[in-house]
Amino acid sequence: MENTTASSCFLSSLERQKIKDLIADGDPLLCQFRAALHERVYARVATKGLLGPDATTAWYYPAAEYLSDAAMLYTLEPEERLANWLRTVALDIARTSAYDWAGPAFRDHKEPLTGHLETAHLCWALAAVYDLAKDAFSESEQAEIRQALAEKGIALCRQWIAKNNHLANWRGILTSGVVVAAAVLGDQDTLDEYIPELVRCALAFQPDGSYGESLQYGNYLAYALTLGYESLCRTYPERAAQLDVSTYGRGLHWMVSSLFYQKPMGGSWGTEPRARAANFNDSAAIYRPSGDVLLHLAARSNVPDERGLARYLFETYYATVPTQGPHDLATFGMVNDWGFLTLPLLTHESQSISPKEADLPLTHSFSNGHAFLRDVWDGRTIVAINGGGDPLHGPGHLHGDLNSFILVHNRERLLVDPGHSCYRNLIHGLESSTQTHNTCTFLVEAESLGLQEDKAKATVLEQRSVLPRRLITNGVPGPPIDRGNRRLSVDRQDVVSVVGAEISQACGAPIQHFSRFWLLAGSHVLFVVDRIEASQPVTTIWNWLVNNRDGKAQVNTSNVPGATHLTVRRNEAGMKLFHGSNGTLGHPVYGYVHDAYHVEPANRGAGRPGSGLLYRWTEPAPLQTRTVVHAIALDEAHRIDTWQLRTEPNRYTLTNGHKQWTLETGTNLYRLVSGHGRVWTVASENDRWTLQY
């Protein structure tokens, strides 16, 4: 029999006692997060309502975080001012009409009303209050909250689930709203109906735990599943056991690989260190996994290195900055933070394991198409790639960015992904397009353009990024969706790493082949090799997006025939990018580089025009077949000019007089030779590429 007598879904009596004991003993980690929770909650209490004078979002978006924080603090340290605030805010939401529970004006409000993401967040908000702070309310007020959860929250979320049959993060969020609300209400019939649906939602993750939409949306879905599990495991352990934490726990390897470093952003972000990550598709450049998700995995995973890596990420990205905001964007706004589950989950012991201690590969690819090349862990150079992968289990929120990459050296992002801004911004479609990423686009027909025109305004062939949905039929998800990208190679031998991908199907006719290989040699040299074939002549454009988010990029260009190059300096990092063909380098197009998403336009995180400098090399005439090499040197900013490229037929040598690497190209063959004569060969046999040393 299941134990249904526990007083709280989100806090057991044992956890409550451990929190008190650890605070009494002066445990430094738990004490600093208890103090941060107290500071955060009482800052809101002082505003007398849900939103303070500096709010940048509508009330739906921070409701779950603000109310759950307050409820957790109240159950641990009940106090009348806090009780009054909880009653005021929670009852105001409970009494709000179903029309408003359905979400803001841009959501569908046709009758019968349907819930949306905002509805699920309101379920989470009132569920936490009812579970943890019920004593702050009279019997009649408790009845109002129960009625709102059942007749507005659960009912509207159920309506969305019934009307939609595709598998992606939305389904997980709405289903979690139902399950969490039903758990605190003790509605066992609804739990029996929707726990299988929550189990099904976890199938949106790739088999290796990576996620097809983005880091950010993978975290959002994992957060919803975390709340579902945590609402069940103390009161309904047999039901919680149906939920497979490993579906997203396996994704810790992907999360760890995707994180670059942390350091201050400057400007309105302040001086505290903030994460930087591989923000492919709709994801923030300052992504870090939600703190509650990390501690949930540290406590609940059955795999030792997953528990250790989760704890390592929490200690690295949260323990050092417990008061870092903004908390109003913690989930929906995707500037992730820790939340109300942090205190109870910190009472579960776990040991931190670093990526190096876990022996994670320095060159690693994942099912969703992301791949990473590093010189060493915590080293100087990272190449993050969106390349070859498997069909996507949860497609959505994609950009046209296959065979694009992010280049990091000396803790500076030199070549960047643009990220994304408010979805209702007119530029969102443009920042999602292929031409704003570090990959190739193609001119399919020539037009007569004036001298001041950008040639890329001709008919441009870009990748398709809107894919069919993965539909659920009779409770069974359909086959994963093939994006048209194939993995060709992922390997490392000593100091040389190689990743290769082919994406012609994502481009469509007339492109018949588009393979790109990245060959990283040590910390200073990267060769990028493109082989492109088309059924009719096309003009290839190579797009390079330089990071100028803070106006600190120093860029110089040279159009000397045979040595055309781009030199970029950012603080202590330098990059010299040589074009190995006869393309023409144009003046920069002023693009966008976003730090983080915001639900409203013109807010912190949205890049201004020119925050990205988009440089393009364009072929002088259409061709059907070409193999083009770009050679990239990386070094300290003051030394980058010492690097030069020497070219011979099918041979490219990068040297600074002390270090030297040569790339030789042939038919289905790339050979990399060090200055000491050591040779690495990347060769294809029956379309299977291997690295030999």
Automatic annotation (TrEMBL):
Pfam family for this entry, one: Hepar_II_III_C
Sequence ranges assigned to domain Heparinase II/III-like C-terminal in this UniProt record: 390-546
Coiled coil ranges: none
Localization (cell): Periplasm
Chief location: periplasm
Keywords assigned: Lyase, Periplasm, Signal
A cellular-component GO term for this protein: periplasmic space
A GO term for molecular function: lyase activity
Lyase keyword on record: yes
Domain of life, per lineage: Bacteria
PANTHER family in the record: HEPARIN-SULFATE LYASE (PTHR39210)
Name of the protein in question: Heparinase II/III-like C-terminal domain-containing protein
Species in which this protein is naturally found: Spirosoma montaniterrae
Source lineage: Bacteria, Pseudomonadati, Bacteroidota, Cytophagia, Cytophagales
